[in-house]
Every structure is written in structure tokens, then in C-alpha cells.
Amino acid sequence: MELSPYAQGGWRLLGDPRRFPRRPFAALLRAAFRSLLDDPQAGLDDPDLKDIDPTVLKHCHAAAAMCILEAGKQKADISAISTCLEDCKLDKERIEQFCTEYQKNKDALEILLGSIGRSPLHITDVSWRLEYQIKNNQLHKTYHPSYLVTLNVESSDSGSHPDVSFSCTMEQLQDLVGKLKDAAKSLERATQM
Amino acid sequence: MLLVLSAEHRAHLGCLPRAGGAAVGELGRLALEQLRRGAAPRACESAARKLNISVDIIQHGVEGLVYLLTESSKLMISEVDFQDSINVLGFSDELNKSLLQLYLDNRKEIRSILGELAPRLPSYHSLEWRLDVQLASRSLRQQIKPAVTMKLHLNQNEDQTAQVLQTDPATLLHLIQQLEQALGEMKMNHCRRIVRNMK
């Protein structure tokens, strides 16, 4: 795992006990994870950070966030993270503190990073309605069943998207279900490989 | 159920006996062509020349037949009802018989043409699918994320549209289960009773 020179500089500041005593260091780590995972608007308003120069604080916050994201992206293990932070002259205790916090948030971080990027509209659910057609203004005695299927979809950029609706005859619905079952069977076989 | 023919329709059909036996066959053919492809004044003109009848008579005859055939096909009236309906026109038995034959031979096709006019929602055409496993992305390496990518083809206002959709394995199983329930519903007593009694 490698960090940019800017991030390394930030971590060197974070490793300096005169600039960052223990409590402010812990507070900054918490703030960095929180702003990435819980609340992007979260600020650096922890009382433990009030004595730190804002420019330094900003630099260090960015460095911590870059390290967290890089570790998450590479799925770095503890030893890789440790080596990287040792290069920035962090002591054992601080490295351990970072790793503990990282382990706690690893899963949430993976979900967040996995959700970034484009993908086709995602089907989340389906609803259906069965009707029996009797007549219309052009044709009487039509008498055939018809389904109205609505696929609920969600787009990756979280913008709302209209659902996909279509009508189908019984034979068409059988065709659709048959194909979905083929897909499910192939999926099952693929997972057993 | 009998057809109710207005005076105007009767007048239009009234030209049939005057046109003669051979002409009725030709007019029937023209009427069906008109239902399939829309009005064709040229075809009427050439028929008029061939049969040596005025174009007006040919056109009225075709219109009368089109109305007779579409109305009876729309209502799906029985053989007997069709005969009774045209009886009021006072045609010869032979002409009545050939009209009945024209109706019976083409009823199915006319019903399918009329069926196309019904208001319709986008309808299912076909589905293609593909299994994917996402392995990495710019923001996250070393992933294993299975997905089913589908291309859904729909018929919409005579055009075909396609949409690419994706879902995860758990939702796929849920979709199958829901849609199988939908299919099963048609075999339930409630639906079968309605279908039986509507016929």
C-alpha cells in the first residue's frame, strides 16, 4: 500500500506527539471515519481538536481519509497498513489505534466503495396483476387472461427512476419465468464450481 | 344477436344483386384488401373497368361489405344470426350463401385485424440474460459480486424497445417465486369459475 507525498506529510504531522497529543489524535481518527462513512457533512468540531492549527488539521484530516480509502480499496491487511504508517514515523500505539478503528469500519467501508460506479438499473421487486379481458370498443368476446407486470427498479446514482411496466399473456409470462429459472439454475451451478 | 343495418348500409349493400354473381366475389376480395391495407381507389377503378360497372357502385359495395364483415366479426355473431341479419336485405339464396361463406372464411383474420386496434400497453416480447461476477472497480479491488444482467425487449406502439436491467441472486429467486404465484393464480377455483361463466 502506498500513499501520496501529501498524505505521507499529513501522517508525519499526525505521528508527532508535540503537534498531536493522544486525545486529539484519537478525535481526528474518529472524525475521519465518521465523515467518510456516516455523515459527509460532519465537521472537525470535536473539542479535543480546538487547539490544533486549522491548516494542519485540514491536512491531517485529508491524509487520514486518503489512507482509509486506499486501505479499503486495496483490502489491505494489518501488516500492509502498519508498514505504510511506520514509514511515516508513527509509533506502534498510534498504528494499532488506527488499525483497530479500521477493523471496526472495514465492512461498512467495503459496502461504500463497492457502491461507487455505474451499473444498469437494478431490479428490487416485482408486482403483478391478473385480469381477464372481455371486450373492447373494436372487438367483443375477446376472453383471454392478461397479466400486468411491474418491475421496481433502482438506479445506482440513487436518482429516482420510473418502474418498468408491461403486459403479457399467460404464455409470455411462462416464457419469462422459464428464462429467469434458467438463469437461476445457471447461477446455482456457477456457485458450486 | 342480430346485426342492425341502417338504411344507408342497406342502400350500399343493395348494389350487390345488380352487380351480379362474379362481381360479388371481386367485391369481397376488394373489401378484405381494404381491411388489410386500407382504402385502395385504384383497385376499385380497375375492378370497375373489368366488370364494366361504375366506380361509385363498386365503392359503395365494398364499403357495405366492409361494414357488414367488421360488425359481424366484432360481435362474433353465429352462422344462424348472420343469415337472419342479412335476410332483411331480400337477396337471393345464392348471394346470401356466398356472403355467409365470405364471413365464415374471413372472420378469424378480421378479428385479428380488429384486435390490433385495441388500446394496448407496452407488452412483453422476449428476455435475454447473462451471468456476471463483478471482480474489481476503480474504487474497490478484489470483489466477488454476482449479478444477473437482463435485456428486456418490449413491444411499444409497434416499435420494439429494449431495456438493460440487473439484479442480484436473492432478488432473482424472489422474482421467480412471485411470478410463479401469478401463473398459479389462473388455475385457482376463483379464476376458473369466472372463465367458465364468461364464455
Describe the structure concisely for a colleague:
Chain A: InterPro entries: COMM, COMMD3. Chain A has 193 residues and is α+β, with helices and mostly antiparallel strands. Chain A contains 6 helices and 3 strands; from the N terminus they run αααααβββα.
Verbal overview:
The complex is a heterodimer of chains A (193) and B (199). Chain A has 6 helices and 3 strands; from the N terminus they run H-H-H-H-H-E-E-E-H. By secondary structure, chain A is α+β, with helices and mostly antiparallel strands. Chain A folds into 2 domains: 5-114, no CATH class; 122-192, no CATH class. Chain A has a 3-stranded antiparallel sheet with strand order 1-2-3. The longest helix of chain A is centred in the middle third of the chain and has 23 residues, at 92-114. The two termini of chain A are 32 Å apart. Chain B has helices spanning 7-13, 15-19, 21-37, 41-51, 55-75, 79-87, 93-117, 169-185, 189-198, and strands at residues 123-134, 145-156, 159-167. In chain B, strands 1-2-3 form a 3-stranded antiparallel sheet. Chain B has 199 residues and is an alpha+beta fold. In chain B, helix 3 (21-37) packs antiparallel against helix 4 (41-51). Chain B is 61% helix and 17% strand. The longest helix of chain B is centred in the middle third of the chain and has 25 residues, at 93-117. Chain B has 2 domains: 7-117, no CATH class; 123-198, no CATH class. The interface between A and B is large, with 58 and 58 residues.
